[in-house]
Design goal:
The structure holds two protein chains of two kinds.
Chain A: E1 3-5, E2 10-14, E3 19-21, E4 24-26, E5 33-38, E6 45-50, E7 56-58, E8 64-68, E9 73-78, E10 87-93, E11 97-98, E12 102-107
Parallel strand pairs in A: 2-12
Antiparallel strand pairs in A: 1-4, 3-9, 5-6, 5-10, 7-8, 8-9, 10-11, 10-12
Chain B: E1 4-7, E2 10-13, E3 19-25, E4 32-38, E5 44-51, E6 57-58, E7 67-73, E8 76-81, E9 90-97, E10 103-105, E11 109-113
Parallel strand pairs in B: 2-11
Antiparallel strand pairs in B: 1-3, 3-8, 4-5, 4-9, 5-6, 7-8, 9-10, 9-11
Classes of the chains: A mainly beta, B mainly beta.
């Protein structure tokens, strides 16, 4: 069965700290992987996506994610978070299957 | 960039009535749109895939007679929640496949059935 697991439900960081949000998936076919962000009161926005090629994908606002096929993972990273990164982050497989989300709070 | 407009953003209706939610692609044509439901503190759940000019494809467990989807034009898909009940209260979101191959989301509709 298809599933997406995000291990961290709520993460609290201080500004300038490094971020890594975990995402593991279970899917039998060719995967297209996505990370979306939802800022408070706003709709979902695409951060980055992986379809094929270089497994290290760079997205907007300094985010990147690495696809590790052997681990069925697509973790999101950012070297130095800002207060404005406070949001809900969702990992998705082939657009249809979403993780439960990780709420990130960045403390100034 | 691509914009998807969803209307209304909030709606309160009485139990037993029907509610229509619209999803429009404003600056591009969308042959395929998707409807999701988001429960509190839960993930988005794909309800159905809406294809212009043909019947929608519903995910397992989604009642097609309760959640009517119409994709009558290349810029508009509608979701009608028929005979709504309190358990249908939720956040409904649409997305569309845009011309760049990405998926653009609407801002969502908060439905409250009283």
């Amino acid at each position: 069965a298809q599933s997406v697991s995000q291990h961290n439900h709520h993460v609290i960081l201080s500004e300038a700290a490094s971020l890594e949000l975990g995402c593991n998936y279970s899917y039998g076919g060719t995967v297209n992987l996505f990370w979306y962000v939802q800022y408070p009161g706003q709709h979902l926005q695409l951060l980055l996506k992986y379809f094929s090629g270089d497994p290290l994908v760079k997205g907007i606002k300094g985010f990147e994610a690495e696809f590790i096929k052997s681990k069925f993972s697509f973790n999101l990273r950012k070297p130095s978070v800002q207060w404005s990164d406070t949001a809900e982050y969702f990992c998705a497989v082939i657009q249809f299957y979403f993780g439960t989300g990780t709420s990130l709070t960045v403390i100034p | 960039g691509a914009v998807v407009s969803q209307h209304p953003s909030r709606v309160i209706c009485k139990s037993g009535t029907s509610v229509k939610i619209e999803c429009r692609s404003l600056d591009f044509q969308a042959t395929t749109m998707f409807w999701y439901r988001q429960f509190p503190k839960k993930s988005l759940m794909l309800m159905a895939t809406s294809n212009e000019g043909s019947k929608a494809t519903y995910e397992q467990g989604v009642e097609k007679d309760k959640f009517l989807i119409n994709h009558a034009s290349l810029t508009l898909s509608t979701l009608t929640v028929t005979s709504a009940h309190p358990e249908d209260s939720s956040f409904y979101i649409c997305s569309a496949l845009d011309r760049g191959g990405g998926y653009t989301f609407g801002s969502g509709t908060r439905l409250t059935v009283v």
